[in-house]
Amino acid sequence: KQEVTQIPAALSVPEGENLVLNCSFTDSAIYNLQWFRQDPGKGLTSLLLIQSSQREQTSGRLNASLDKSSGRSTLYIAASQPGDSATYLCAAANFGNEKLTFGTGTRLTIIP
Amino acid sequence: NAGVTQTPKFRILKIGQSMTLQCTQDMNHNYMYWYRQDPGMGLKLIYYSVGAGITDKGEVPNGYNVSRSTTEDFPLRLELAAPSQTSVYFCASSYSTSGQPQHFGDGTRLSIL
């Protein structure tokens, strides 16, 4: 059974710094890995999706990497802004099923 | 540009009552999902559907039922509400699972007292 872990549960960073969020998964037979953002009281917004054949995806100031052999994905945020404050969740989709397994998220606070 | 719409946004139920959480998407997505999110926990899949007339259980289906009579709608039914069902419920949809991200609604906050 796939298990997804995100550590730390919370992170505070001064504005302008670059930062990395971590995601670990136990079953390397993943089809894709997705990163989401969740604002308080809102649903999840898809940020980046990395296929199993890819090593990274980029969108603006965000860069997500995937290392299946080590069971890790990272989300890099460059030049952080207060508007980046949110909870970030990763989720893994395994081959053979249509289900996502979610981590518990990292709550990010950017300090102005 | 509605996307995934969930109603109601908030609801308080008494133990033993029943209710239906509504979910509608206007993106012509084949796949639809229901999740619950409890404090400090990741999202857990309740039920999912790969197309009209086809549904299947997720990780935590007990106490819930679903139907999928149209591509657009995927209601979630609670028959006998229990305190353990207090949670935030999210509906999501995707075109397929092959590299397409899931789109989420804003959730329904449900309290069972």
Protein traits:
heterodimer; A: 112 residues; mainly beta; six-stranded mixed β-sheet; five-stranded antiparallel β-sheet; 0% helix; 58% strand; globular; B: 113 residues; seven-stranded mixed β-sheet; four-stranded antiparallel β-sheet; 11 strands; 50% strand
Briefly, what is this?
The complex is a heterodimer of chains A (112) and B (113). Chain A has 112 residues and is an all-beta fold.
Secondary-structure map:
The complex is a heterodimer of chains A (112) and B (113).
Chain A: E1 4-5, E2 10-14, E3 19-25, E4 30-38, E5 44-51, E6 56-59, E7 62-67, E8 72-77, E9 86-94, E10 100-102, E11 106-111
Parallel strand pairs in A: 2-11
Antiparallel strand pairs in A: 1-3, 3-8, 4-5, 4-9, 6-7, 7-8, 9-10, 9-11
Chain B: E1 4-7, E2 10-13, E3 19-25, E4 31-37, E5 43-51, E6 54-57, E7 64-66, E8 76-78, E9 87-94, E10 103-104, E11 108-112
Parallel strand pairs in B: 2-11
Antiparallel strand pairs in B: 1-3, 3-8, 4-5, 4-9, 5-6, 7-8, 9-10, 9-11
Walkthrough of the structure:
- The complex is a heterodimer of chains A (112) and B (113).
- By secondary structure, chain A is mainly β.
- Chain A is built from no helices and eleven strands.
- Chain A is globular and about 45 Å long.
- The termini of chain A are far apart.
- The model of chain B has no long low-confidence stretch (mean pLDDT 93).
- In chain B, strands 2, 4, 5, 6, 9, 10 and 11 form a seven-stranded mixed β-sheet that branches. A four-stranded antiparallel β-sheet of chain B has the order 1-3-8-7, with no helix packed on it.
- Chain B is mainly β.
- Chain B is globular, with a radius of gyration of 13 Å.
- Chain B has strands spanning 4-7, 10-13, 19-25, 31-37, 43-51, 54-57, 64-66, 76-78, 87-94, 103-104, 108-112.
- In chain B, a hairpin with an 8-residue loop joins strand 9 (87-94) and strand 10 (103-104).
- Chains A and B meet through strand 4, strand 5, strand 9 and strand 10 of A and strand 5 and strand 10 of B.
